[in-house]
Structures are given as structure tokens and as C-alpha cells.
Amino acid sequence: MREFDYRRAHDVPGALALLDAEPEARFLGGGTNLVDLMKTGVERPARLVDVRDLPLDRVESTSDGGLRIGATVTNSDLAAHPEVRRRYPALTQAVLAGASGQLRNMATVGGNLLQRTRCGYFADITKPCNKRVPGSGCPAIEGEHHNHAVLGASEHCVATHPSDMGVALAAFDAVVSYETPDGPGTLPFADFYLPVGDTPHRETALPPGALITGVTLPPTPVAARSRYRKVRERASYAFAIGSIAAALDVQGGVVHDVRLAFGAVASRPWRARTAERVLIGATADAETFAAAADAELAAARPLPHNAYKVTLMRNLVVAELTRLTEEAAR
Amino acid sequence: MTTAPTARQGAVGTAHTRVEGRDKVTGAARYAAEIPFPGLAHGWLVLSTVARGRIRSLDTAPVLAMPGVLAVLHHGNAPRVETDYTGLLGKPDPTTAVFQHDRVPHLGWPVALVVAETSEQAREAAETLVVHYDREPHDIAFTADHPRAYPAAGYGPAATEKGDLEAELAASAVVVDAEYTTPEEHHNPMEPHAATARWEDGRLEVVDSNQGTTWVAGELASLFSLDPSAVRVRSEHVGGGFGSKGVRAHQVAAVMAATVLQRPVRVAMTRRQMFSLAGYRSPTAQRIRLGADADGRLRALEHRSLNLTSTVHEFIESSTAPSRVMYDADAHHTVNRVVRLDVGTPTWMRAPGEAPGSFALESAFDELAEKLGVDPIDLRLRNEPERGPASGLPFAGRNLSACFREGARRFGWADRDPRPGVRRDGRWLLGTGTAAASFAAGAGPSTAAVTAEADGTFTVRINAADIGTGARTALTLVAADALDVAPDRVRVRIGDSDFGPAMIAGGSTGTRSWSWAINLAAAELRERLTPGGTVPPEGITVRSDTTAALGALAQKERHSYGAQFAEVAVDPATGEVRVRRMLGVFAAGRIVNPLTARGQFTGGMIWGISMALHEEAVRDRATGGHYGADLAAYHVAAHADVPAVEAHWVDDHDPDDPVGIKGIGEVGIVGAAAAVANAVWHATGVRHRHLPIRPDRVLLAGAPDA
């Protein structure tokens, strides 16, 4: 493990300056992923800039009825926030489905977005990995890939994004705010993660040296009737093998509004817009839900050992939309 | 003092918290890697990144120039060791004899030890060391029909055979012929392996975390050609072993470095290194054929099992063991086979042989019950043997039926609808299953010293190991009863090879073996303590050795038994399987400390949940190494996976047995995975013969026909 310099920032300009002064520096949030990666040698920063003291730890309503979530809000605080629970219940459920109580007390919203894949090849520096060492190859395609991507992957990388929280943020059209030494910027969630293509090591559209300052959720009335469902090999403390964030508004038996996003199937939280287009205006029944899932999953390109994910996601779409329909009818 | 023992109630059988419990929960109890030594240096193992080949060279010069680095040991400069000997448990696994040659027999083989002033310096230097290999093609593919497989003896002979198998199968009304597989599994005790070695006045002293210092000290003496009296190994607190904590690369490397540098050196494994260096349970491929009359009486039983081992040492996972004990048949054939591959050597892991073997056998029995339309418990009770099916020896008590009767009553088995796939709770399909369990009740020669102190207390010195089981407490209760005093007047000291030879904590033999030695010494001591007599300041000490007493025990089939029950819920839309409740009833001799015994039983049962649903070490064929060698990827049951788990026991008394205590460490896991798998069948109507029963397997197996 490389020796590193630890610095604590107290304001955003100071954090940016501390990072800018050392080419091999990383921002440190809760450290629940970065520190693990330092132990395994995947990350070897010369400096850690601790951002947990920055004044970015608030969850506030926006004037238009949305929510602004600071980057250093912990997962636990986010999940417990009454407005999150009331307006975006799937977000609370997603956060609580992840990790453990201890980890959620440490992990931050900004760090959650930037966490790395849990692909076992990525985590093992003795093995090739295009995401870690560009051009070294992707052994998962011929090797172990039970829990790798079926959507949006490429021949260069089939890793999945591990976040639960991100799936709900994708469903609700979150916007990521950041600061750079050259000024602030924003990225819609749909543009935040880059396509895999032949550059799996480039994961986000954040400019170099940028610090995530927060995430804004636009007002989304349909989100008040939303659910997050996570399927995993054990009942807790495991990454998803498939997950879904779903919000549904049914009026007169017809889908009036819907949000769908999938987790653990792609290099990023996967917004299922094709399925949403099939659903809008259609009869809210199991047949429609299955057709919508099939339309989305037509793009799936499973490998020999992860084809079950296509069946799993189809079943999850039907199960969760059916349940939301039944709940609305009550 | 005056000795005047008075009649009092026995301590054995009464719940007692751990005597070292306060030390453990306050952090006062120190584990091997936490004990400070002046001048301590830290070693870090460098493991091979190829699965087969030779070390061509190591770029040691730049590493030796790094801050704090003291030495780099490798095959070119390390002290030589002797491997041609027979230790307490047989020939040594050559993988413990590190740095002796340039050959690499598996990925994760130790190729160097970097020693530095601090652990961090050693780690950074070790990760910087460049090793050049001549790589050779490797074979790690474990398949049931591997052409290089051969029969091999593990515990018991390679094969047992009686009767005409094909004829009895042909004459059977019902036949089950099925293949079962279990994956590579790892122990992963919470406390990683760690040892500190130093030379002190011409003696080698090692502070370690192991399952028996007699064993480890003996191996180190043999390896380094030292007089046994010149080696002292201590291991006071151990954070779990499960079969993995014997002689390993870390102790040998630490002794080498301490010898070369003439200062104390500590070597600890990382969790990731443990997957390569600590041993593991081999995967198994098993085939079972059962033939029965229409009433369920077995005519034929065949159990074939294959496991893998390394190219340098033969380890047999004796998975046919349960078939050799549990059920007889007119034709009864068993064989254990092994194939040598370019992997590390597997080793004992909780209920070696019995855990994977019982999954196959007890699943097959459930399949037979299904085909016959006979209740699974009735089927087992109809096949209770008179004598050992393979040995022909009489049973020294066989209390399986009592376990099933009590278990069925507590579980509510009588109300069970045998039809599969017909119970629903929302999205969940529900089912129940059962399985039988047994494990051998053996013992090994042990010595003990019991001292009557002048202050009226007693000190027991026995080289036992408390690997988290509560052994220290159990032995305190045993000694208290043997001395007829209250437990608080007895101090038990363990985990020090200078106390004299004793059995290891393994194979469910520890408490039985050690109690035997304590009883012998205490009985003699009581005779020497005359009522009203005085004890001199140095105390009165009596030593015992059970070797003769063990030899005098009649040859019989001695086992503990159990009946396992599980209820599961399966979501056929997602493949999720969750255990809702488990119940185990055991016949395991006298239960010394009900509090810690319950933990032993339920711990084994919970491990059975992990074995059934979660545990699986995945190897990457391209490199020959593990994929996801950490506890994030290698899943064991989390709290949320562990529902109401109950363990109970029935009276189990053998009047001919001088100790009356059987081991309880292993039997709790035996049959547990089969009970879960049988419950999954009952829930879904789909039979799962390959562990673990992962969501993808359940999902792709489809919904029940019903």
C-alpha cells in the first residue's frame, strides 16, 4: 500500500485547490469503496482530500417542488429524510437496500455515484481489466460473468455499476451538480455516465478535477407511488443481481405516467425508456407490462452465464408494476 | 490448606458463560497478531501470479533499497527444511515448506517473503517485487469424468464393497440414480492466520493462531530439524479455525526470517491470501445409486465421490463416509477418488467428507422417498442398520431414531403434506425438508497435569485449543466435576506446547480427548489429597496420559447423530431462496456446557444454510486463480439469512464409554444443506443437485409442473 498524504478541506474552493495541487489526488467521502480499492492496490493515490467537512450535507426542497441533496449527505440521512420518504419512496428503499447500517452511516451521495464496479477482475490487480488497465483485455467475457452486464456493454467491458441509489436517481431524472476550478456545471443523470464503448476506463462525463456538490431531483409527482426491489443471492449485505426502481400512475386502467430503471444489468443505472414508451397510454395489465419489459430487453446481449438476468428483469418489471397497480387500486 | 471436598451438584450440564468472555468483549484478550514484541519485524508473503511453471528470477535489488526493508527471502536464499517425516496427522503437505525450489505448483504459491520494520513497508515492498516466471500450461478443470482420477484412501479405505450391485439394482422395485456436486468452499475464520517467531535462549518460540500447538510445534521441529524440546508454540486465543489452522506457510516463513535476521518476525495472512494459503474444501462430484423394495428396504447402495487435490500432496475429501455408517443394503459399494490439478492442496473443513457426502446421500434418500411415496423419516427409520454397513462392527449406541422422533414432534412434521409445489405465501412457495446427520466420535492420546494449589484452588494444564468453541470453559466444568469443586476454584491453562502433548481441536475429538486426560489426572489427584491433609506451597501435581486407556476401548462404531429440519420460501419469479426456520435435534453424548454447545450446533446449521445457498469459490480458468477472493464476493449467510434456528439434544448415554462426551463441532453442519435442498424441492417440485442453490439456477429450472 502506497503511503499517502491526507488533507481535510473545509470549503469547496479549498477542496478543489488541494486536489489540483497533487496530480495523483482523490477526494475522500465515506471511504467505503475508495479505501478498499487502496488496500487491494487498484487505487494508489498520493493524496486524499477529505471532503466530509464541506457544507454540502443538507437535503432541501427546491422552489419548484423538487429536492436538492448535498454531495456529502450520508446514505443513512438521505434514506431517513421525511421528504425523500414522502416524495421519492423508491429512493429511500434503494438506499436502504444497499450495504449495511455501518456503511450507510459513512457513505456519501457523491461517493455513491462515483463508486467503482465490483467486477472481480477489476478488483484483482494480478488480472487483466480494460477498466483498470486500458488495453489489457476483459477476462470476464470468457471467464466468470454470472453477475455482469446484459445491456449496454461492449466487447471491451461487461462490468456493472453496483449502486442501488443510482437506479432510483436514474428513474427520477436527477441532475448532478459539480464545481471545478473553472466554475460550476451540471449534468443530467442520463449524460452523467459515459457509454462503455472502447473506453471503459472513462466512466463519467465529469471534467477533470471536478467535485460533485449535489444532486437535484426535479418535481416528479409519479415518484410518490414508487418502489425499489432488489434481488440478491442473500437477504442482505450483497450487491444486486438485478434490481428495479418503478413508479406508476394509473388512471382509469390506463398508464398515465411511469418511471422505470434497472440496476445490476449495465455499466450504469439503466433507465428503461423503451419500456416506458410502450407503457404510456396502454392498459395497465400484466400483458402490457411483459410487452414493455420485452421491448426494453430486446437490446440485451447476454453472455453464456448471465442470460438469467433477462428473465429476472422481465419478471421484476411485471411483478413490481402489477404490485403498484394493485396498490393504486386500493 | 485443608482439603475437605463435599458433595455438590455437577457443573457439567449447566450453562456457563465463557471464562474468558470478559477479556474477549473488552479487548483484553490478545490474538496472535496483537501481541507486542520488542524489535519486532514484519514479513509479507509474495504469492505467485501463475498457476504452473518455474520462477526464473526475482528483482530483489530495488525492493531491498526501499524504506525499512530488511530482507527478501526466496528459494535462492532461504534456509532449507526437511519434509521427509510423518507428523501427528501424517506426511506434511509440501506446500508448507516454502522457498525450497523454483517450481510453482499453483497460483497463490508463496514465492518470497519481504521483511521490513513496519507492516506497511513490508506490504508496499512485497507488492513492488517483480517476479519473472517461465509459465507452463495449467489444468484446473474439475470434472466428474476427469481421465486422471484414481481411487484413494482417506479416512478408511478407498473403496468398500459387498454384494452384487447390478443384480440388486435390477431386482429393486424403485431405483434412484443421480449425480450431485458441491463447489470449492473456504473456511474464512474471522481471525486470519498469523504467527510471530523468535529465538529465545536457544529455543524457537512461536506465538500463533492454531488448532493444536502439539501439532504445530512437532511439525516445526521436524521441518527445521530441531529437538522437539527446543520448540515452544503458544496459541492462547483463536478466532476460529474450522480445520484451516494447522501448519501453514506463514509459520514456516516467520521461522525462516527470525532465523536469518535473529529478531522476532511476524507474518500474517490477508483475507485474500487465505484463499490461496489456508486450505479449503475440495469441490466434489458424487454419484449415488439406491435400489429399494416397494416397502423402502434398501437392496442396493452405491456412493462414488471424486475430489481434487494439488499436484504435490494427496488430500481426500472422504465424502462416502456417511454411506459407510448410515444405511446398509444387500449390495453396498462406496469409493473415494481424487484427481491432481494445478491448485492448492485442500484440507479439512468443518465435517470433512460428511458435509458434502451427506448432501448427496440425504438428497438421494429424499428422492427415493418421493419415488416410493414413503415419508422421508419413515424411509430412514426402516433402514436403521444393526451393525456398521462397511465395518461390520456393532454400534456403541445409535440414537438417530430418537433424534427424528423428537425433531418431528418439535417441527410439526406429522402435519406435512408431502406434495411438492402446493403451498404459497404471496410470491413465495413454501416447503419443508429433513435429513439425517452423523459424525464419528473419536479421540486422540492426550496428557494433562492437574495441580492442587496451596490456596485451595486447582490449576489444570492441558495443551488444548479453544478456537472459539468454548473449550476452555467446557474443560473448566469437566475439571470441576472431576475434582468435585466449584468451577470458580479451577483455572484451566491451554494453548502451550510446553504443557505436553495433547490432541488437536479437530475432527470433533478435542473435548472428548482432553476431558479424558483431565479425568484421569483429577481422579488420581483426589486419591492423593487425603481429607484433612495439607498441600505444600508448590502444590501437588498429577500428570496423566490417555494412550493406554484409548487403546483399551472396544472397537465399535461410535458416532454422534442428528436430525435436521428446514422450512424454506422460494420466489420462482426471481429465484430467491430464503430459509424460514431450521431445527436440529442431536444425540451427542453428555452435553458439557449447554450455552456454548447450542452455539456449536446452531453455528453448524447456519453454515449449512451457507453451504446450501451461498458458498462457492469461483476459479478463473484462464489464470487458474480465484475470482473474487474476498468476503464481498464469497458469500456466507448474513444475519438476515438466518431465521429462527433451534438446536436440541436427546439423552445419549453409552455405559461402556469412560468419558461419555462426544465432539459436537461437526455434526451440526452434516445434513443441513440436504435438509434445505429437500425443502426447496418440496416448495417448488424442482430437485437441485448442485450447490449452491443460486437464484439463477432456481430461475432457469423453471416453475413447478403443478
Helix content of chain A: 25-40%
Shape of chain A: globular
Distance between the termini of chain A: 57 Å
Q: What is the CATH architecture descriptor of the domain at 21-30 and 444-548 in chain B?
A: 2-Layer Sandwich
Overview of the molecule:
The complex is a heterodimer of chains A (330) and B (706). By secondary structure, chain A is an alpha+beta fold. Among the domains of chain A are: 5-47; 225-329, CO dehydrogenase flavoprotein, C-terminal domain (Enolase-like, domain 1, 2-Layer Sandwich). Chain A has twelve helices and twelve strands. In chain A, the strands form three sheets. Chain A has a five-stranded antiparallel sheet. In chain A, strands 9-10-11-12 form a four-stranded antiparallel sheet, with helices on both faces. Chain A is globular, with a radius of gyration of 20 Å. The relative contact order of chain A is 0.13. Chain B is of the alpha+beta class. In chain B, 25% of the residues lie in helices and 24% in strands. In chain B, the strands form six sheets. A seven-stranded mixed sheet of chain B has the order 3-5-1-13-10-11-12, sandwiched between helices. In chain B, helix 15 packs across helix 16. In chain B, 59% of the residues are buried. Chains A and B meet through helix 12 of A and helix 3 and helix 17 of B.
